[in-house]
Amino acid sequence: MTKTDLKKVLRPLIKECVKETLFEEGVLSNIISEVVRGLGSKQQPIVEQKQNKDAMKKMQIEEKENRNKKLNETRKKMLDAINKDAYGGVDIFEGTTPLSKGGAPDAATTPQGPLAGVDASDPGVDISGLFGKFRR
Predict the structure, then answer these.
(1) 64-81, pLDDT tens digit by residue?
(2) What DSSP state is assigned to residue 106?
(3) How far apart are alpha carbons 35 and 45 in whole angstroms?
(4) How far apart are CA 112 and CA 103, in angstroms?
(5) At 111, is the secondary structure helix, strand, or coil?
(6) pTM given for the model
């Protein structure tokens, strides 16, 4: 059997199967109804709004500045409220620095390490030139 003979036999069978599927099983009517439903409904177009990156950065900076400004105002109000009446207007913490590390009030004092008594802001000894002298 040649290719053309096979086409002559199969073509009518395939054509009949496709017609049967489209018309008798309702596939064609389902396709048509879905297309009509899609054309008939008025769908809202999708609109994408893009904001300028510079405008977004500017808004973020402004928000940060506003937060910082409010925080500073609150701090100032609190300090003014404390300093007006407390201790006759004298700042009792003038010239003091905060602790670098605190402990529990009820804990026993124990040595904390070889640098426990050294201030954290102490720059220490400069050793940057130490190895420069020994290079060959």
Answers:
(1) 999 999 988 988 888 777
(2) T
(3) 18
(4) 11
(5) coil
(6) 0.29
